From TrEMBL:
Molecular functions per Gene Ontology: delta(3)-delta(2)-enoyl-CoA isomerase activity; enoyl-CoA hydratase activity
UniProt-annotated location(s): Peroxisome
Major subcellular site: other
Keywords for the protein's UniProt record, in alphabetical order: Isomerase, Lyase, Peroxisome
Keyword Isomerase among record annotations: yes
Enzyme class, spelled out: lyase
Enzyme Commission number(s): 4.2.1.17
Gene3D superfamilies for the chain: 2-enoyl-CoA Hydratase, Chain A, domain 1 (3.90.226.10)
Pfam families from the UniProt entry: ECH_1
Protein name: Enoyl-CoA hydratase
CDD domains (alphabetical): crotonase-like
Lineage: Bacteria, Pseudomonadati, Pseudomonadota, Gammaproteobacteria, Pseudomonadales
Amino acid sequence: MNDLIKQERNEGVLTLTFDRPDKLNALNNRMYTQLADLLLAADEDDQTGVIIVTGGASCFTSGNDLADFLQHPPTDLDSPAFRLMRVVTHLQKPLIAAVCGAAIGIGTTLLLHCDQVLVTRNAKLRMPFVNLGLCPEFGASLLLPRLLGHARAARLLLWGDSLDGAAAVACGLANELFDDGQQCLAAAQHMARRLLALPQESLRQTRQLLKQTSMPELQATIRQENLLFIKRLKSPEAQTALNAILNRSTDKKSLTGQPS
């Protein structure tokens, strides 16, 4: 069985690339588990100094694989997606995201935990949790209002509005904007090498200081969100919305002759 996340190591930089192009890099439980394991291993590896996460030059991730999500929903706080959240929030080494194209759902909330976020102009950041009858996750209900203010956070979380790359940089969800995917990926590697050139222990301790004040509140918020997420997923609202999307996808494949 092939891995759905590619690994590339280059002089202390570990690049993790979602590699499921036929599903627009939609994340399933297997990918959540693999990503968490790779991040844990990198954090303990003395030869790894910086981690880059990307979906390649075309698409970051379309979010949860809805079919897998409905067949194998999270049932407790140790479910694969929730375990990944714990791993990311406890990560000791710098994490850079190179976002080209769509970053939906957890594809956007993950960015709130990265030290630097680079995006392309055609990036599409969207968190359609309410639209799907669900609730925010990964601490978004805490971190987004702090970053953007209540009104802007509400537009993204209540309405599910999307942001392109330029808008993401303008509001502070991303740091740098690039015209295309190759430029974005190359810039992420350059930024990682700049971090590697710095005193590493000082770098990690400073990163820890940046995060430690908000960590207890963040962990409590993520736990609360996840417990509610499990309940919301069982609700008639969520079941109706998610199944409607799956049915539309199946209908489209039938019309084009694609296998479902």
